[in-house]
Every structure is written in C-alpha cells, then in structure tokens.
Design goal:
By secondary structure, the protein is an alpha+beta fold. Helix content is 47%, strand content 21%.
Length: 150
Amino acid sequence: MHFKFRLMFLLFMFCVSANSLAQNSSANAFELYKDVISGKTPVEELTPEQRMQVFRIHQALSSANSSEEIEGHNFSLRDIERKCEVYKYDESYGELECRGSDLRPVERKCEVYFYDNQNGEIECRGGDFRPIERKCSVSLYDEEYGEIDC
C-alpha cells in the first residue's frame, strides 16, 4: 500500500512540474514574440525553434482575418487553405496546386520556398497576394506534398 502511495505521489509531482514547464514555455514564447514585434530582438538572432514559436503565435493572433476576401479577388485565405496544396518539385522550391478556376492566379503568381526539409513560406510576384505571403505557411505531410495554413 505504501508503494502505491509513493508511486501516485511521484506521478502527481511529474504532472505538476510538466504543466508548470509548459506554462513557462508559453509565457517565454509570448515574451519573445513581443520582443520581435517591437524590434528589441531581431529575427536573425533566433534559433529555428524560437522562430517557429514566434511564427505560430503570430499566426494564431492573425488567424481571425483568414475569412476576409483578398482585395480584388473572389477568394479568402481560408479558401486557399481548403482548396490548395503544395507540390515540392526540388529541394528548396514547390508549387501551389488549387481546385477551382478562381484560384488560378494564385497558382500562376505564387511558389513555395522551403527553408528546411518540412516547412516553407509562400512567395508571390507582384503585390496582389501580400496577405498570402504574410499570413500563410506550408508544412509537408509527406516527402512531396504539403498543406497550407493561414
């Protein structure tokens, strides 16, 4: 009986400390995000993990705008998420493949640059699709194909 009590106590302590670490990590990531946005900390000085944390926080904070239509076009960032995917055709680049003729301009003007093996950002010619460049990212779900998150 005494052994079960010890085991339960150790399990409880582990859960409490893991929860505390997760809360501290989230708080630290948000502080880092604020430092980057304010210009105190340059993005270039961040580790890849810190960059992803900052990017995810920024994405979460700006996701409320994903249903807005892109000016001059009849689609939204949400449509791009739902109707497009990425095909990686070489080590650093990929192309967007979309369902529906309304998204054909995005296929023609945009491509994906992969900054590591699994993740990339969308780059577009001209200024029409800046919201896509700023608010969307790409994650591969296998070796060649990926999804878009806005």
